Amino acid sequence: MAEDRYSWAEPALEEVADGVFRCPLPLPGDALRAVNAYLVRTARGLLLIDCGWDRDESREALLSGLRRLGGAPGDISAIFATHVHRDHLGLAGWVRQESGAWLSLGLGDRETQVAFAENPARARQASLDRLLSCSAEDVVERLLAADQARSDAPWAPPAPDVYLVGGELLLPEGPALRVIATPGHTRGHLCLFDKGRSILFAGDHVLPHITPSLGVELPLADSALASFMDSLQLVRELPATLVLPAHGPAFSGLRERVDELLDHHRDRLERCLEVVNSKGSTAREVAGALPWTRRRRTFSSLDPFNQMLAVFESEAHLRVLTDNGRLRMEASAGRGRYLPQEGPGAQ
Ligand SMILES: [Zn+2]
Predict the structure, then answer these.
(1) Strand runs (DSSP E) across 107-235, as ranges?
(2) How far is the CA of 341 from the centre of ligand 1 (A)?
(3) Is 80 exceeded by the pLDDT of residue 223?
């Protein structure tokens, strides 16, 4: 069963639709296992959608996929990164250098791209500061210890040649691929909709097995969950019969999966409300009280990176509850505490 669940991540070149190839690139040591790059035949060479880490393993897997198509990096004419995260944009600089292809990124991810390219240490500090505002000192300590144990240099995301905002037709020569703005996972996250073949290239917006993390970017979003849920409603209405996610196998049933994700977050909102103490709780305390991942792991069993994601996600839920008037937030010394709403209408 466990083997089946990750069979999509095995090295392969799968033709998922006519002229559309799924090429998983490994993410060694990462729980996600792999990221799917998609190669799409177009009137002007190959379009590459997302490209894994800037590591030899991803390079080799991409080269091998291209060879199976009888091609080489020079056949790639365009690179579309669904968002700024390293597993989607990591190799883009190298591919561009080898191919002369242009690279696009969502405009909403520009600040994150620039912040990490200019000063990775300062960008990192912003995440740590946000954790401190959630009273997650323990997670900061673990992250700093993990940073010290790492030897690889910080990654500098490449600047794109073009920024997209959504609504554009990506390749005027065809096939007709419409850019769809889907903020939430990151502010600038984009999907691509292939109307002719009814395919949604979903990036990290709709994944078949896991719920995407929210708002891991700079500056950290205040309303990542609300944006994400709006973006789910938006793609729910698309007539897509095939969904091509960045992590996991190709699947059908877009609406059903979107509804599951919406239900999951509605359920999490209620659980957050349940665990908020009458004296007030921090996002760190709420994260510690909830189960995580589909295997319902305890917070303390997560690695520090996933603990950070869990704290941010809890905070995103608490913010939605505050915006909806179901909780109130008190800040003191730069730290937020969430309290049950008082007075009429209190639950
Ligand atoms: Zn991502």
Answers:
(1) 162-164, 177-181, 190-194, 199-203
(2) 34
(3) yes
The alpha carbon of 332 and the centre of ligand 1 are apart by a number of angstroms equal to 32
Single pTM value for the model: 0.93
| Cα 338 to Cα 129: distance, rounded to the nearest angstrom | 18
- Per-chain residues with Cβ under 5 A from ion ligand 1: 85, 204
**What's the mean per-residue pLDDT of the chain?**
93
CA angle 328, 332, 335 (to 5 degrees): 80
pLDDT digits (tens, 9 = 90+) for 297-306: 999 999 999 9
Phi, psi of 165 (to 5 degrees): -115, -10
The topology under which CATH files domain 2-118+156-253 is Metallo-beta-lactamase; Chain A (3.60.15)
Question: pLDDT of 206-215, one tens digit each?
Answer: 999 999 988 7
**Which residues are CB-contacts of 217 (< 8 A; sequence separation ≥ 6)?**
84, 109, 111, 112, 186, 187
Answer yes or no: is pLDDT of 158 > 80.
yes
CA of 288 to the centre of ligand 1 (A): 23
Instruction: Give the Cα-Cα-Cα angle 81, 62, 47 (nearest 5 degrees).
Output: 45
The domain locations on the chain are 2-118+156-253, 121-151+263-325
**CA angle, 179 then 184 then 311, to 5°:** 155
- Residue 100 makes CB contacts below 8 A (sequence gap 6+) with 74
- Give the count of beta carbons closer than 10 Å to the beta carbon of residue 330: 10
